[in-house]
Amino acid sequence: MNLRPSKPIASIVQQQIVSCDPDTSLLAVSRLMRECRCSSVLISADGQPLGIWTESDAMKLDFQNPSVVDSPISRWMSAPVQTIKASVSMDEAAHYFKGHGIRHLLVTDDQNEPVGILSQSDLVRHQDTEYFLHMNEVQSILPASAPLQISQSEQLATAVTTMRDHQSDCIVITEQQQPVGLLTERDLVRLIAEDKMGNALSEEISKPLICIPANMTLLSARSLMDRRNIRHLGVTDLDGSLIGLISFADILSNIEQAYANRLREALTSQAADLARSEHDLNMAHALIDASMDGIMVTDEQGIIQSVNPAFTILTGYSENEALGQNASLISSGKQSPEFYREMWKQIHRTGTWQGEIWNRRKSGELFPEWLTITAIHDAQHNRTLYAGIFSDITERKKSEEIIENLAYYDPLTRLPNRQLLFDRVDVALATAKRDGNRLALICIDLDHFKRINDSLGHSAGDQVLSEVSKRLQGCIRAGDTISRVGGDELILLLTELDSDDAARRIAQSAIEALKQPVRVEGHELYISASMGCSIYPQDGRDRDTLLKNADIAMYRTKQAGRNGFQLYCADMNERSMRQLKLENRLRIALSEQAFTLHYQPKIDIQRGEMIGVEALLRWQDPELGSIPPDEFIPLAEELGLIGDIGVWVINQACRQCRHWLDEGNRELKISINVSPQQLLRRDLTADISQALQQASIPARLLDLEITESCLIEDADAVADTLHQLRDQGASISMDDFGTGYSSLSLLKRIPLDNLKIDRSFVDGIGQDKNDAELVSTIILMAHNLGLKVIAEGVETPQQLDYLASLNCDQVQGYYFSKPQPATEIPALQHRDQWR
C-alpha cells in the first residue's frame, strides 16, 4: 500500500501573511485582524519580523482602561517570532506546538524567507487522523478540572483578569448559575476592534454556548467546530449538565502521534511484504480478516477480488455473493456521476481518496460510511488494485444531527434559536435586496410573564411558552420563521411582504390567537403580548438595525399599555392603527348591516330620459365617519369579506326595485357592481336567483357590471357564470373599459351587452385630443360589436354634446345628478328633460 509519512506543513500553511509596522495602533491591528478574518498579525519593519499579535495576546490588556487601544502594537506583541521550516512534517509541527505551548508559527523556506502562518487549528483540520478521532470519544480528552465560569453580572475586565490568572483562553458566562454563553480570546479582539472594551459583560458574550454530549466522537466534535468556525464546545453529561469544555488545542494535544506513526510503519511494511513474500501476504490477510472495518479489494475494472468478514457484516453480502461482482453492487445511487469522476481523478493523481459516502446493504437499506480508497501497485503482476476500507457512521450522523439541533433549536419549544434566526434573516435580507421585496421583524414579549414563573414555578412557565409557540406557529405563513431568542422573547421573521399592512395583519392574528386562556396545572391563565415591528427597507437595511428598531417599537407598545402592536415608523404606525380600526369596524358593519345604497341616474342620451340607476355602496361609521368606497372596498376584498357584502348589495338593490314598483313608479334597470371574488369564489348565479325570487322582480331589470380584472384569473369560469346569468335575463356591462386587462379576443368570449367608458377618458374631452379620439374609437368599436356604450363621469355640457355627436347610448355623472338616497329617485324619474 502507498501509505506515506505525514505531509509537510507547506501543503496546509496559510500563505497570506497579514502584517503591519510596529507603530500601528492596537485598535487598527484588531480591526485589520477582523477584516482579514485571521487569528494573527505579523509585526515587521524593513522586511524583518519583529513579533506577532495573536488573539491570545489580547489577554495581556487592562480592559478597565479603554484608552489602551491607541497604544502601538509593539507594546503588546509577542516577541521574538517562533519560526518553523515549510519542509517540516505535520507530526513534527504538532510536537513543536505542544512542547512550546503556542498556537501560531511563522513558516519560512530554505532561505529563511517567510512563506506563511501556521496555526494550531490548521493542524487539527488537516491531520490525517480521522480514524483515530472516530474511534475516540470527547470524554477521553475532557480536562479534569471544571470549566472556568463567571456570572454575566460581573464586569468585562473582571472576566479577562480571571481568564489571565487561570491561563485560560475562554470562560463560561452564567446567569443564575446556568451557562448562557462564552467569552473567548476571539471575542476580546472583536471588542477591541469595535472599541467596546468598557461595555457590560452581558452585552458582549457569544450566545448560545454550543454543547455536545460526552460520548460524542472527537471526529464529530472537530467537524462541528469547522462548520461553525468556533474553537470551543461545551460538554454535557446524560442529564444535560455542563461538565467541561474542549478546544482545538485539546484535540491536538491528545492525538496519539505514536499510534499514527506505528500504523503508517506497519502498513508501509505490509505493502513491501506483499511484493516479497507469500508468508507476509498470509499475515496481511489475517490482519484484514480481524479488522472491524469492511475491506473490499477490486481490480482496475472495479471487479471485486476479495472482501473480509466485516464486509459481510456491514453490507449483508457473503463473500461468494460479492466476488466477481462490480463494486457498484453496493452503490446507493445517491452520488452523482460527477462525484465519482472527481473521486477517481484524485485517486489516479494522489493514490488515495477519503471521505463520506452513502452505500446500500443487501436488504436495500441505505447507510452512510467513512470510506478510504488506496491504490495498491502489484509490480509482480504489473497491475493496480484498489482497496476500499469503510466503517458504518450511522451513529455518528445521528450524533451530528443531535448537535445541529442543540446548536440551532431551542430545546423547550423546538423553535429556531437566535443563531438560526440570524442566519435566516441574513439570507432573507440578501433575497429582499436582490428582488426588491419587503420583509419584517416582529419582536414579541409576553406581558407579565415573570408573574407566572414567580407564582406557579418555572415548569408552568415552560408549559405556557410551549403553548404560545404552537399558537403563534399557526399564525405565520410557509417561509416565515418564529424563533425563541431567550426567556419569553420571541421574534417573527416575515418575508416577501407585498405591503406593510401584511405584517400588521399577521401581528393582529397573533394577538387574537393568544386571547384564549392557557390551562396549566389546573389554572386558567390569560396571556397577552406586546409586539413591535420594523420593516425592510424603510426601518433599516441590516439585521442589527432592524432588530433594534423592532425592539424599540415593542417597548412603545408596553408604554402604551401592553397587549398590542406598533410599527417602528410613527407615520406608518398611525396609518396601521387606522387600518386596524377600519378592519374591525368593517366586520361590525357587515354583521350589523350598517351599509346603505345610493343610486345614480343613467340617462338615455338620445331620448333625454332616465332609464336606470347604478347602485353605489356607502358606509357611514359612527366612530370613523364617512368612509369612501375606494378605501373600504379594497380592504373588504383583501379580507375576503367582499363576497358577503356583495350578496347584501344584490338583495338590498332587488328589494328597493320592488319597493319602487310597489309605489307605482315605472320600471328602472338597476346596475350592480360585481367583484372578481363573487364571480370566482361564490355561486353568483344562485345568489342572484334567490334575490330576484325573494323580491319578485324580473331578471331583465338587473344589470351586472364587471371589471376587466375579473378576467385575469380564470376567464373561462367567468364566461360560464356570465352566460348563465344572461340566460336568466340579466344584462352584462363591462365597467371602466380601457383601463385594465381585457383584449378583443376576450370580449368575443364573454357575453356582453354594454361597455362603460371610464371617467378618466371622459374627463379629457375638450382638453386632451388623445382622450377624445380614444372615446370615439371605443364607441365605434362597441357599436360594430353590437354593444351599447355608457359614458360615466359626465360633468360638463361640452362633454355631453361630444358624446351625443358620437351616438353614445347612455351617460351618467354629476352633470345630471350625484348618487342619491333611494327616497329621492322617484322624484328624479318624473323630471321632464335631462338635456
UniProtKB/TrEMBL annotation:
Keywords for this protein: c-di-GMP, CBS domain
GO BP annotations, alphabetical order: cellular response to nitric oxide
Entries under InterPro entries matching the protein: Biofilm_reg_signaling, CBS_dom, CBS_dom_sf, EAL_dom, EAL_sf, GGDEF_dom, Nucleotide_cyclase, PAC
Required cofactor(s): Mg(2+)
Domain annotation CBS: ranges: 13-71, 77-137, 141-201, 205-263
All copies of domain PAC, residue ranges: 353-405
Span of domain GGDEF: 437-570
Catalyzed reaction equations: 3',3'-c-di-GMP + H2O = 5'-phosphoguanylyl(3'->5')guanosine + H(+)
Enzyme class, broadest EC rank: hydrolase
Keyword Hydrolase set for record: no
Domain PAS span(s) in chain numbering: 280-326
Pfam families assigned: CBS (PF00571), EAL (PF00563), GGDEF (PF00990), PAS_9 (PF13426)
Tree of life domain: Bacteria
GO molecular function per UniProt: cyclic-guanylate-specific phosphodiesterase activity
Enzyme Commission (EC) number: 3.1.4.52
CDD domains: EAL, GGDEF, PAS
Domain named EAL: residues: 579-833
PROSITE patterns listed in its UniProt record: CBS (PS51371), EAL (PS50883), GGDEF (PS50887), PAC (PS50113), PAS (PS50112)
Keyword Cell cycle carried by entry: no
UniProt-recorded name of the protein: cyclic-guanylate-specific phosphodiesterase
Source species: Motiliproteus coralliicola
